[in-house]
């Protein structure tokens, strides 16, 4: 008796066309080979993940996709552009429109339907950020771009204004990409020098606990006092290291799914003063739901104090009586900065 039958080889060009039809703008293919442990474990061992404990979970699966899909042969790396405008906002660009998880999930479902209709014997595993899949590594292996000094995955077509996902298949394809053999950063260190909290501690090494994105989104308690002055103009996420990157100087406008919503167009003062009813009306379908009502107002209070916004004194004084302690403490700190 012979061994298991070799899976049929799929046409990469046809798969790429299906992915683009589903809405993905960049598509690449990599062999589903294990990722060296040092790529993840050195960063975790150094404690640079702060309290993002989920990063230290399911490590075997992160490093070997065959643990997620037995017999995995191919990883399809997928990317979508999200840049929409240069309008000022205290919200990072990726979070101004509809939650990108929902957008990518819709597109992944469309790809899966067309894939199964065309190749019914192929099994797949889709990943959209929340799964134990290292999307940046697979995007590099699939030739979509490179990781720059600020830790962002950066493409030739859209700069670093992209969100990533991946689909694992238990079949090979007829053409795999090679990683780009180039370092677009060279000696440039503009992003490192521009980071207001010195979170980029080495070339492509980020201390999550010092990053404004972590502090404004993941940290539900009080932000370290030394980092609070950097909150100026920032309520959710941070784009500073991307804004200054020379590779991002010619952005491409994304589609309607990433068009800014009401919550992302509010001023810092309006976000500090918003009622729970306003939050509930603005937040459905928005990434800002992750920070929550109290987290956004806490961040806004820090931002007002960091900016020295004397016109926000009334709002901040009102927050001194808030039932949520981090909000009260942030307002007290901000008022102290106003003298």
Strand segment tally? 8
Q: Report the C-alpha radius of gyration, rounded.
A: 22 Å
Q: Characterize the overall form.
A: elongated
- Measured by DSSP, the beta-strand proportion falls in 5-15%
Class by alpha and beta content? alpha+beta
Order of helices and strands: HEHHEHEHEEEHEEHHHHHHH
Strand order of the largest sheet: 1-2-6-3
User: Could you list the spans in which at least 5 consecutive residues all have pLDDT below 50?
Assistant: none
Helix content: 25-40%
Number of helices: 13
Terminal CA distance: 84 Å
Question: Quick check: average pLDDT?
Answer: 93
Please give the largest β-sheet.
4 strands, antiparallel
Overview of this protein structure:
With 339 residues, the protein is an alpha+beta fold. Among the domains are: 158 residues, no CATH class; 79 residues, Leucine-rich Repeat Variant. The protein contains 13 helices and 8 strands. The protein has a 4-stranded antiparallel beta sheet with strand order 1-2-6-3, with helices on both faces. The longest helix has 19 residues. It is elongated, with a radius of gyration of 22 Å.
């Amino acid at each position: 008796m012979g061994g298991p039958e070799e899976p049929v080889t799929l046409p990469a060009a046809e798969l790429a066309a299906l992915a683009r039809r589903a809405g993905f703008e960049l598509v690449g293919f990599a062999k589903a080979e294990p990722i060296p442990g040092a790529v993840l474990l050195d960063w975790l061992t150094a404690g640079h993940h702060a309290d993002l404990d989920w990063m230290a979970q399911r490590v075997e699966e992160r490093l070997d996709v065959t643990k997620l899909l037995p017999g995995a042969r191919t990883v399809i790396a997928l990317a979508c552009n999200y840049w929409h405008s240069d309008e000022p906002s205290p919200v990072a660009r990726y979070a101004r429109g509809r939650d990108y998880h929902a957008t990518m999930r819709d597109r992944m479902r469309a790809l899966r339907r067309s894939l199964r209709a065309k190749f019914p014997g192929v099994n797949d595993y889709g990943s959209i950020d929340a799964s134990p899949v290292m999307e940046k590594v697979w995007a590099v292996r699939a030739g979509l771009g490179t990781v720059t000094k600020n830790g962002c995955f950066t493409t030739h077509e859209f700069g670093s204004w992209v969100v990533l996902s991946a689909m694992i298949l238990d079949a090979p394809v007829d053409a795999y990409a090679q990683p780009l053999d180039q370092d677009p950063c060279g000696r440039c260190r503009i992003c490192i020098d521009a980071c207001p909290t010195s979170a980029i501690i080495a070339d492509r090494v980020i201390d999550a606990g010092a990053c404004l994105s972590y502090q404004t989104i993941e940290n539900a308690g009080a932000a370290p006092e030394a980092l609070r002055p950097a909150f100026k103009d920032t309520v959710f996420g941070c784009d500073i290291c991307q804004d200054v990157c020379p590779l991002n100087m010619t952005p491409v406008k994304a589609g309607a799914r990433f068009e800014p919503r009401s919550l992302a167009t509010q001023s810092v003062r309006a976000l500090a003063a918003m009622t729970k009813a306003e939050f509930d009306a603005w937040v459905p379908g928005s990434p800002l739901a992750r920070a929550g009502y109290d987290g956004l107002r806490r961040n806004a209070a820090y931002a007002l104090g960091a900016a020295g916004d004397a016109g926000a004194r009334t709002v901040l004084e009102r927050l001194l009586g808030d039932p949520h302690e981090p909000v009260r403490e942030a307002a007290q700190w901000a008022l102290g900065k106003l003298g």
